[in-house]
Structure formats: C-alpha cells, structure tokens
C-alpha cells in the first residue's frame, strides 16, 4: 500500500473518530425517529447525477410496497466518483429494525478503496444527529487507448457529513454541514498533471409538519464553497454560492392546492475572470388530486442578473389519470434552469477544464406521454416516449491549451451547444417475496445539434451522447443470510459520420453473506467481459476488476 493510500485512510479514520467521541447517547427504543430510518442518508444540495442530466426524470410507480431499512441499495452515483473508477458496492442489506451504526471497508485489485461509516444518535423523540463518512477511489495502472502504454491513474473522493434534526410541535428544523474532497490525476500528456476539488456547505432549513395549518411551507438557505485547485490559467479557482429556497402552498378545497416556489442563487467568484451573478426562479402552480386525477399546472420563470440569459420560461405541467387501481396514463411538459456551477461540472466531467464561464443549461421543454401498470402484485411496467430540447447543453471535447503539445489532446474542454432528442423507453420490474427481483430498463434517443457550425463541432457535441441505454439487474435471496446480484449496463453512442465511440458494456456479479448477526462479507466483480470503453474522451476504464470487504451494523 503506497504512501498516498495510507494518508487517505489515516485522514478518514480521523474524520470518523472525532465526532463519535463528542457525544454518544443511548438510543431510545421506540420513537418516531426509529420507526423507519435510512441509515446512510445525507444532505445533498442539488448535486445532479451526471447520468440524469439529459434523461427523462424518474416516474414513480403507481404502487409501492413497504420496505425494510436498506443500506447502500444502489450503486454509487457518478457524481460521487467518476465512472472510470469502479463503483463501490454492497448488496441490499435489510432488516426490520434499523441499527444506528454502519461501517464498511473494502479493497480491490486496482487499489480500489471502499470505506463508509455512519451513526445515528437519537438524543430524544424529537432530536437526532446523523454522522456520515465515505471514501471511494482507486490507484492502479490502466491500459491507454490504441496501445499507447499504461497510465498510473489514481482518483479518491472523500465526503463527510453531519446533520441535526429537531422536531417542534408544528415545524421541523434541520441543520447540516458537508465536506468533500476529490484528488486525481490527468492523462500523461495533459497540460495539468493533477486536480483537486474541495467543497463544503452549511445548510439551515425549516419545514411545516402540521397538516392542519392553513399554509404549508418550507424554507432553506445554504452557504456553498467550492475550489478547483489546478484549473489551467486560473489556479485556486473559487466559487461561493448563497442558495436560498422557499415553498408556500395552501388548499382552496379538499382536492385543490395553489402554491409558489422561490429559489435564488447569489454566486461569487475568486481567482478567475468570471462574472458574479444572481439567478432567480419563481414557480407558481396549481394542483388537483383525487381518486382518478392528479393534475399540476404551473410554470418555471427564470431570471439572471449580472451574467447569463436575462429571462427564460418553461412549462411545469403534469397530468395522471388512474382509470383503475393499477393502470395510469400520464403526460408531462416540464423544463427549467440547470445551474452549471462547479459541482455540476464535476458531476458532468471531472477531467474537463473550465476555460470560460458557462451559462446555465436550460431545458426549454421535456414533453412525455406514458403508461404505467401494475397488473399483478409485484409486477410494475412503464412505457413512455417524448421530446426534449436543451439550450446551452454541456459537452466535452479534446482541446489543446498548450501550443507545445499540438495534436496531443492534452486536456478536455467543457463547452456548450443547443441540442434536442426524441426518446422512447420501457421499464419492467418484478419482485417475489424478497426472494427474487428482476428489473430491466431501456431508452432509445435520436439526437440533433442545432445551429450553424462546422461539422466537426457538431461531431464533438454528439459523440458521447447516449443513443441507447439499457440496464438489467437480478437479485436472488435464496436464504436470509445470502444475497446474489447479476447486472448488465449498456450505453451505445450517437453515430457520427458513420462511426461510433465504443459502447459501454459492463457485466457485473456481486454478492453478500451475513455470517454473524450484523457482520457481512461482500464482493463484486466488474467488467466480466473485459471490454475496452470510455466514459470520458481518451480516459480508459478498468478491465476485469473486483472489490471485496466486510460491513458491520451495530
């Protein structure tokens, strides 16, 4: 284990032990806090998953089964660690009664590190403190494209969180703090050898909880700090955001509600030539809900002062018709502003350099029609199709920031262009008595890049757009202590001048076994087909790789 890895582990242990020693309280045996608790919850202020940037928003199934507490039920999202790093994993570990503590530690053949710890302190029936720490990463040699040799790659992502919740009689108060750190290196010929992202935020929020109040409300403010240490031409590139949100809604009848949402970002920059600005969003809306209909009619009104488009508007309309207990027709026309702050740029492409200030991406419209059904217990279907239009959509392309490295693609530049796509897709899920579950989803898209430009620019815009995405996942729970998982992820790219970027083909197998109460071993093997593919231009992924470790619930 090299010195860098040792330093990360020691710093992680320090972060974990400091707060735990401050105030350990005996857990209340029965309280509203303990009824259903997701142990690894964390406050995450509007950080978008990169895989969802250009994707139809999730549609909730018409029925939902009651579930026990789940620990790490999903793969790590791409905004936690880049897709080039093997995704950390443990199987679904469920139990009827939540334990307040959770620790997990794993290691893999590419130097993959997977560490996670959390603890929920229940101070009283109305007070709780939640501590979270997780660190993921890798340090190993990856094969460069076109037999160009090997790259000594490393990427570590660390996150620590503390959250406090107090339940007053009619209002909840929550306070949270987050710290994040990303350390990684670029390709050998890159103009910058390495990069470090440091982030932190403090959150204060209130929310009404009494349904008898004439108005329901929520409000929050967030102080968000972020630094990109090694951006080309602007070292220690800093972005500070004061993010404020509020929502007020009131009923005008038993079935009808009117409300208005408010959001404002005050963005300040340092050590770069970016302009400070303020963005403002208003979301007036009307809702009708009864046994047959769910209707929302509203609009997104967005304004910017100081930098960016001054005024934009988009629809906020959704209609669902339930023509039986298990069959729903739905339609939507959505849109709105996607703030391209430093957090979103990291989620989109951590290896991209920011040479010029990006404007916000604006989803002008996302129209969809669909059909959801649950004809029998445990089976859920969703069929949909639609059209999406994006102004100033993000894309990355090879760029030469240094005249001495002409033609070597030493960096990726993040740029913007107007795009649109027509999509259609389907999802199916089946669960049988917590013994077997199956899910499959596929979405096809046809992309277009609007505007007059050289063909080569449009090629860059569309080259990494997903033309077809498919996900398959199977869980088998033959005995209470054993869980097996088999999955497959496929992403094919848009065809450009008769050729395509190699598709992502990731077949993976995983499992976990609880050999003592609260103590489990887990393992996962990724890229079983040993395929060569890229999530970011020129950056290779790991071949066949595995990670294994142990987890503790206490």
Structure description:
This protein is mainly β and 554 residues long. The chain has helices spanning 3-20, 342-348, 455-463; strands at 69-71, 93-95, 101-108, 113-124, 127-143, 150-167, 171-185, 194-208, 215-228, 237-251, 256-270, 277-289, 293-305, 311-324, 327-338, 352-353, 361-373, 379-399, 411-432, 436-449, 466-479, 482-493, 504-516, 519-526, 534-536, 539-540, 545-553.
> How many individual helices?
3
Largest sheet: 22 strands, antiparallel, barrel
Average pLDDT rating: 83
Overall structural class, as computed from helix and strand content, comes to: mainly beta
How large is the radius of gyration?
Answer: 24 Å
Distance between the termini: 29 Å
Instruction: Summarize the amount of helix as a percent range.
Output: under 10%
Number of strands: 27
Low-confidence blocks of residues? 8-96, 403-408
Query: What is the subunit arrangement here?
Result: single chain
Fraction of residues in β-strands: over 45%
Order of helices and strands: HEEEEEEEEEEEEEEEHEEEEEHEEEEEEE
Shape: globular
Q: What are the main properties of this structure?
A:
554 residues; 22-stranded antiparallel β-barrel; mainly beta; single chain
Helices and strands in order:
Layout: H1 3-20, E1 69-71, E2 93-95, E3 101-108, E4 113-124, E5 127-143, E6 150-167, E7 171-185, E8 194-208, E9 215-228, E10 237-251, E11 256-270, E12 277-289, E13 293-305, E14 311-324, E15 327-338, H2 342-348, E16 352-353, E17 361-373, E18 379-399, E19 411-432, E20 436-449, H3 455-463, E21 466-479, E22 482-493, E23 504-516, E24 519-526, E25 534-536, E26 539-540, E27 545-553
Parallel strand pairs: 16-19
Antiparallel strand pairs: 1-2, 3-4, 3-27, 4-5, 5-6, 6-7, 7-8, 8-9, 9-10, 10-11, 11-12, 12-13, 13-14, 14-15, 15-17, 17-18, 18-19, 19-20, 20-21, 21-22, 22-23, 23-24, 24-27, 25-26
């Amino acid at each position: 284990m090299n010195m860098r890895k040792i330093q990360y582990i020691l710093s992680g242990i320090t972060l974990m032990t400091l707060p735990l020693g401050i105030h350990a309280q005996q857990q209340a045996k029965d309280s509203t806090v303990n009824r259903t608790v997701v142990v690894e919850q964390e406050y995450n202020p509007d950080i978008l998953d990169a895989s969802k940037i250009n994707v139809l928003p999730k549609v909730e199934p018409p029925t939902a089964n009651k579930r026990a507490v789940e620990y790490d039920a999903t793969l790590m999202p791409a905004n936690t660690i880049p897709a080039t790093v093997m995704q950390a994993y443990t199987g679904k570990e469920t139990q009827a009664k939540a334990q307040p503590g959770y620790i997990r530690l794993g290691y893999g053949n590419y130097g993959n590190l997977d560490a996670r710890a959390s603890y929920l302190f229940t101070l009283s029936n109305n007070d709780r403190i939640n501590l979270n720490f997780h660190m993921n990463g890798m340090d190993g040699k990856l094969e460069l494209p076109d037999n160009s040799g090997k790259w000594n790659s490393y990427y570590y992502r660390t996150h620590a969180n503390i959250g406090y919740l107090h339940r007053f009689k009619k209002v909840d108060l929550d306070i949270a703090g987050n710290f994040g750190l990303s350390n990684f290196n670029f390709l050998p010929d890159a103009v910058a050898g390495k990069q470090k992202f440091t982030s932190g935020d403090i959150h204060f929020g209130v929310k009404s909880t009494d349904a008898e109040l004439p108005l329901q409300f929520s409000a929050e403010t967030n102080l968000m700090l972020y630094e990109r240490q090694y951006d080309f031409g602007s070292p220690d590139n800093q972005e500070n955001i004061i993010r404020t949100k509020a929502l007020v809604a009131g009923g005008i009848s038993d079935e009808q509600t009117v409300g208005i949402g408010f959001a404002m970002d005050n963005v300040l920059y340092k050590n770069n030539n970016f302009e400070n600005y303020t963005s403002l969003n208003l979301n007036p809306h009307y809702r009708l809900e009864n046994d047959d209909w769910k209707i929302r009619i509203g609009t997104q009104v967005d304004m910017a002062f100081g930098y960016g488009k001054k005024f934009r508007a988009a629809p906020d309309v959704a209609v669902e018709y339930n023509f039986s207990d298990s069959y729903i027709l739905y339609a939507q026309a959505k849109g709105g502003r996607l703030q391209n702050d430093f957090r979103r740029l990291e989620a989109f492409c951590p290896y991209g350099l920011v040479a010029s200030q990006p404007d916000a991406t604006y989803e002008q419209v996302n129209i969809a029609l669909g059909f959801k059904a649950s004809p029998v217990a445990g089976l859920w279907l969703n069929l949909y199709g639609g059209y999406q239009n994006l102004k100033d959509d993000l894309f990355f392309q090879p760029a030469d920031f240094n005249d001495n490295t002409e033609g070597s693609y030493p960096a990726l530049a993040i740029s913007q262009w107007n795009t649109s796509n027509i999509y259609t897709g389907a999802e199916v899920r089946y669960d049988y008595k917590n013994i077997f579950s199956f899910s499959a989803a596929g979405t096809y898209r046809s992309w277009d890049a609007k505007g007059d430009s050289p063909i080569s620019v449009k090629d860059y815009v569309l080259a990494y757009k997903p033309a077809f995405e498919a996900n398959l996942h199977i869980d088998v729970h033959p005995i209470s202590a054993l869980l097996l998982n088999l999955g497959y992820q496929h992403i094919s790219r848009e065809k450009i001048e008769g050729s395509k970027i190699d598709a992502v083909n990731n077949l993976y197998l995983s499992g976990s076994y609880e050999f003592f109460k609260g103590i489990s071993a887990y393992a996962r093997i990724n890229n079983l087909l040993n395929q060569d593919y890229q999530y970011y231009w020129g950056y290779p992924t790991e071949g066949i790789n595995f990670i294994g470790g142990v987890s503790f619930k206490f």
